[in-house]
Amino acid sequence: MTEMLTKDSFLKKVFNYEENKEWKFEGDLPCIIDFYADWCGPCKMVAPILEELSEEYKGKINIYKVDTEAEQELSAAFAIKSIPSMLFCTTEGQPQMAQGALPKHNLEEIIKEVLKVEK
Questions:
Q1: Is residue 40 annotated as a catalytic residue, yes or no?
Q2: What's the CATH number for 3-113?
Q3: Which residue in 5, 32, 43, 46 is the catalytic one?
């Protein structure tokens, strides 16, 4: 299951940008954060793929969703200008951002190459 994040849960589970200037990942598992909106067509296309991936990689990665309409401060903190945008966070190193509705095979490739997670 993908999990919805608010600003408060984001600060605890991903990155506390209020306390840290430099990136410091707060999570235990690598994660994908989907910045989306309910009215966005491409976001709706990606949602079931992310649900599938959350099941296939259960216990290996976390998949979170951030509603850009409800969490405008969080979206601004990451300069989200187009949706869907996805933030890929490893437990070590800097996160990477991708924009657009990526097909499942591209997301699996990113999980393997960027997040360093195998099925």
A1: yes
A2: 3.40.30.10
A3: 43
Q: How far apart are CA 85 and CA 97, in angstroms?
A: 7
How do residues 48-67 score in pLDDT, each as one tens digit? 999 999 999 999 999 999 99
Q: Is 89 a catalytic residue?
A: no
How many CA atoms are closer than 13 Å to the CA of 48, on its beta-carbon side?
Answer: 3
| Catalytic residue selected from 5, 31, 33, 40 | 40
Nearest to 87 by CA among 64, 69, 118, 56: 64
Alpha-carbon gap, residue 86 to 90, rounded angstroms: 13
pTM over 0.70: yes
